[in-house]
Structure formats: C-alpha cells, structure tokens
Amino acid sequence: MTTAKEKYAACIRCNNCRWLPVPKSADQAFICPSIQYGKNFAYSGGGKMITGYALLDGKADYTPEVLDSIYACSVCGGCDVGCKTNNAEIVEPLNSIYELRRQCVENGHVPVALERLLANLRQYGNPQGRPSNERANWCKSLNLPHTSKLGEETLLHVGEAAFHSAQWPGLHFVVQRLQDEGVKFAVGGAEEPDSGALAFDIGDQKLARNLAEKTVAWVKKSGALRLITCSDTAFMAFRSVYPRLGIRLDDVEVLHISQWLAQSAVYVRQPDGLHFNVVTYHDGCRLGRLSEPYIPWNGEWKKMFNSLPVREPDTPIRFGTEGIYEDPRALLASVGTHVVEMERTREFSYCCGAGGGGAEANADFAKQAGLVRLQEALSVGVSTMVTSCGTCANHMNQLAVDAGLPIKVQTLLDHLCQRGANGAVAVSNGDKP
Ligand code: SF4
Ligand code: SF4
Q1: Which ligand 1 atom is nearest residue 83's CA?
Q2: Mean model confidence pLDDT for the chain
Q3: CA 412/CA 386 separation, integer angstroms
C-alpha cells in the first residue's frame, strides 16, 4: 500500500468517518462538517478518497461539483479520528485528503478564491495580500529585541495575529508575561515568515515547502534554542506538517504559548470583585488533534493471516489524543474561569469550518459549521466560548453577531488578558523557563 491509488482504495466505505465514534446525542453525532453540509457521501473523508481514486483512474473529472466536495472542507482531521478509532491505521483519510488536494493543485484545479490566497502567499508572504512590513505593527510601540539582534534564548512567533489588531492586547499580555518571568526573547516583526500551513492545506506543497524552509532558516539564524508560537496553525505546522515535508527544526524546542504560560506561572490571587466566570472551551482542530506530532514512517505493509494489512515495523497510530487539550483548560481554571464542556471536545471536537481554506472556498459551508458549533455552545448554557485559535474566534464571533446569537467568542489570550486586567495576579510558580 504505497501509491496514492492504493491508499485511496483502502477505504471500505463504512461511513465511520462522518460520526463521533461514541456520540452522546443524535443532534451532535457528526464529527465531519463537510458531509453535514454536502449531505452526500462525496463530502465525507471516505467520499474524498473514492473521488481521488476515480480522478486518478480517469472515471471522474475536476468538475465544479467535484471540486466543491473536495474543498468545502476545513482539513480538520475529524474523519481521521473517526476512521482510525474503527479501522486503526489501515485507511488514514487525512493523508489521502492532503494527497488529493496536492493532486488538484498539480493539475491546475483550485477554486479561484484559494488560488488568490496562494498568489498572495507567493507575492506578499501572507494570504491576505498585506504589505509584509505590517507584520511588525503589533509590536511597534514595545521596543522589543528583534531577531536581527541574534542570540536571545527564545524566539516569540506570533503568526496571523500580527494582522488582527483586535488580537494585539493578547500578544502584549504574552510579552508582559515573558518579561515578568525574565525570559530573554526576540520577535521577528516584519521578518517573521508565514509557516506554510495554509499552502499545505490547500495542496500547494511546493509553496508550503518553500515557506517552511524560510521559517526554519529564520529560526536557525536567530540562534534561539526555543520557539514559542501564539499561532495554533503554525504549531500544527511545526509538529505535523514539517515532518511530512521532511523539514526539521532539529534541536529547537517548540512550544505553544498555552504550554509555556501553563508551565511558567499560576494565577492565584484574585482580588474581591473578580467574579467567578463560566465559559465553554472550543478545541480548535489545529491546536487539538492536528498538532499531534507526526512521525515519518518508511516501513513496509505486510499481510497478517493473508488478508489484514499491518505495518512493519509498527508505528504509533495518530488518534489525535496527543494534541494540546489540558493546558488551555488549566489556564482558564487559574483565572477563576470554570469550563462547562460541550459534547464534542478534545480529539472529537467539531470544527468551526474556517480553517484550511474552507471559509474562502465555500462560505456557506463555513457558516453552517460555525453556527452548528455555536448552537452546541449555547446548548450547555453559556454566553462565552473561549478558544485558543484566532481564526475560529474571528469566524464564530462574526457569525454570532450576524445571527444575533447571545454568545461571544474570545481567544484564550484575550480572556487571560482581560481577567488579568480585571485583577487576577500572575504569580510565578518558581519553575523559571
Ligand atoms: S475513510 Fe475510513 S471511516 Fe470513512 S468510509 Fe473509508 S474506511 Fe470508512
Ligand atoms: S477533514 Fe474535516 S471537514 Fe474534511 S472530510 Fe475530514 S472531517 Fe470532514
């Protein structure tokens, strides 16, 4: 089972990739927002594999309908968790979705809106097509050490939040915490490259490799031993996309900001007037199941009992359980915020539809997915949803406003920053990073 066609053919059409392995209710049984939107097998993880096979076999063409079934999808990996829980590593729909999108790009069949994002990434180094020097705006007033001054122990990577001024207070909060803890760090400002994750998700692996190589060169040039990123998407790239591309950060330790914050400090003193707070937490796919480290495997497929394919040597199966789930929850608890869990959490989280080019390729798909998730949050009786991912927060917050839903969506950093500003006091736990 080594060729793309063989991998596509491994799908047994059991449909388990559309559902949670053990749903708690019929209303929230789907794990795949694509099939819930398209209502046709082609939109499921398995359907995309059959499409990939048919395209390679010349039995299907890249029609608008076929492209919609491929790209009305946020590459969230829910299907992969659903499939592996039932079929172990034999099928791996996520790998096949990456391959199918690579095939689309190679053959020149990419939705126009996604082609625009790729063109912007090529020309400006960001998908929005903003001048690259705008990346430095978030830290202009802070006078921070820059990567051009080499030799700081830690490099702070901010990712797409650099272009969203609403997320700057959260970034400034991070800077304050690093300074409070005495961490010597530098930022990239306008020199920070795009991680390449979006290009990879869309299927342009050549562009993704180019951006990933630029990022690794930037990190290595800085001389930093540790890279802390505020971006869920970039964190996913460092842990699971770069290994797929054979690109390594070598000895540089990579942390998501929630890991560093949870390790470095506890928030214990809450003055009178800081009310106990209740929210729900949305596990964004990219910090969650998609950030589970990917371990490249170059073994052989053998047959057990003359029929069952097995890997030799064996390798761990990626069930999505090794994503970052506990640190954000611990941080919320540390500022007196109680999390009421939704039915679909952690590796079984339901994607909001915004990532992987899903929102740009088909806005109706992303809108439906986001509204489904907001309704799930409302069903547990909260008026605030917190998520680590800025893309999820922007997308669902706008949907909530447009639909007049009584809920707001905050990023984790914004929430910590606001609770801190309202009086919670950060106290070092003594374990200096
Ligand atoms: S991708 Fe996996 S879960 Fe989905 S239909 Fe195929 S074998 Fe079944
Ligand atoms: S990646 Fe997500 S949206 Fe796409 S088919 Fe799989 S579960 Fe559905």
Answers
A1: 3
A2: 92
A3: 6
From 81, 83, 90, 98, mutation site for ligand 1 pocket: most ligand atoms within 8 A of C-beta:
83
Instruction: Report the alpha-carbon distance of residue 126 to residue 124 in Å, rounded.
Output: 6
CA distance 168 to 199: 25
Tokens of 242: 């770069």
The beta strands (E) that lie in 313-429 are given as 337-339, 384-387, 408-411, 425-428
CATH topology of domain 131-264: Rossmann fold (3.40.50)
> How far apart (Å, rounded) are the C-alpha atoms in residues 59 and 8?
14
Residue 193 is given by DSSP the state P
Burial of 355 (0-12, 13-18, 19+ CB in 10 A): buried
Domain ranges for the chain? 131-264
CA of 51 to the centre of ligand 1 (A): 13
pLDDT in tens, 34-76: 999 999 999 999 999 999 999 999 999 999 999 999 999 999 9
Pairing of strands 154-157, 185-187: parallel
What's the token pair of residue 140? 């202009």
What are the two backbone dihedrals, phi and then psi, of residue 30, each rounded to the nearest 5 degrees?
-75, 140
Taking the centre of ligand 2 as the mean of its atom positions, its distance from the CA of residue 236, in whole angstroms, is 16
Q: Among the atoms of ligand 1, which is closest to the Cα of residue 14?
A: 8
Backbone φ and ψ of 418, nearest 5°: -65, -40
C-alpha to C-alpha distance for 152 and 149, rounded to whole angstroms:
8
Residue nearest to atom 8 of ligand 1 (CA): 14
β-strand pairing of 300-304 with 308-312: antiparallel
